[in-house]
Amino acid sequence: MKSYKFKVNENGYTVNIKSHEDNVINLEVNGTTYDVILKADVKKTKTPTLVRAASKQPAVPLKVDPKSTKTKIVAPIPGTILSLNVKVGDTIKENDLLLVLEAMKMENNIIAEKSGVVTSIKVQVGEQVLQDALLIELE
């Protein structure tokens, strides 16, 4: 026998379940016996599961054409420019830090994949950029 205590509109109730057969429950509320007939089973709700479809196109890392004379550095993701570490005319080497891009509260270092000279900078600190936006051009 299970016993429950309820409070409805500031009134206290003690409910004792005496028996449960099929859809009939025999229970006692504050000493009075009742037969309760259930219309349908109470179904438990399940926590929904988020299902994401697989990406149609796998992410491809940015690659620079080694034969090209001009190199364009583009934003890999949308974000805000936190700092520029180069200026026009600077000579840079491969893996030098060019700028820091903040996206989703994370700082992303944008590095040079090729040596060269900075010919133009298309962004400013604090500017918001979209994915694939041109940031810096190298020669």
UniProtKB/TrEMBL annotation:
Top-rank lineage group of the source organism: Bacteria
Keyword tRNA-binding attached: no
Leader sequence residues: none
Keywords, ordered alphabetically: Biotin
This protein's record includes keyword Endoplasmic reticulum: no
Annotated SUPFAM superfamilies: Single hybrid motif
All copies of domain Lipoyl-binding, residue ranges: 63-139
Cross-referenced Gene3D superfamilies: 2.40.50.100
One Pfam family from the record: Biotin_lipoyl
Designated name of the protein: Acetyl-CoA carboxylase biotin carboxyl carrier protein subunit
Originating species: Winogradskyella litoriviva
Taxonomic classification: Bacteria, Pseudomonadati, Bacteroidota, Flavobacteriia, Flavobacteriales
